Amino acid sequence: MRLTTNTAPDYAPSRVLLIQRALVVGFSLVFTFSGTEGALNTGGEVKTPTTTIPRAIILAMIIVTSLYMGVQLAAQGILGAELAGDERAPLAAAAGKALGPAGRQLILTGVLIST
After folding, report:
1. Torsions phi, psi of 3, nearest 5?
2. Which residues lie closer than 8 Å to 46 by C-beta, 6 or more apart?
3. Could you tell me which residues come within 8 angstroms of residue 90 by beta carbon, excluding any fewer than 6 positions away?
């Protein structure tokens, strides 16, 4: 028996997809760096900036990570397995289930304003 087709799996992403992912990661890194750089601009006016600024950056990262994890756990607790099914607006779906249509609308309006 002779194989006439390619037996290698076809899972390699296209070049366009790789470029798109690289741009998203690049813009995310620039956004993250500019936020940290903004905190460093006022470093000259802080007492003992060599210890205060690193401590503030680490504390800010801990607070933001805790906030994101809290939102994720709350949404997961409200929706359960349904959270994975709503790909477009899972937090709005969680707010809609917990607070009704007004909660869903509040989240969607907040997303619209923040972007």
Report:
1. -85, 130
2. 52, 53
3. 75, 79, 83
Region 19-44: what's the mean pLDDT?
A: 80
**pLDDT one-digit tens code per residue, 1-10:** 555 555 555 5
pTM: 0.59
Q: Is 106 exposed, middle or buried (0-12, 13-18, 19+ CB in 10 A)?
A: middle
Query: Are the CB atoms for 93 and 86 separated by under 8 Å?
Result: yes
Report how far residue 44's alpha carbon sits from residue 100's, in angstroms, rounded to the nearest whole number. Answer: 48
Q: Which helix (H) or strand (E) holds 68?
A: helix 49-79
Q: Which of 58, 57, 25 is nearest to 38 (CA)?
A: 57
Interatomic CA distance for residues 22 and 12, integer angstroms:
15
Choose among 98, 52, 46, 44: nearest CA to 71.
Answer: 98
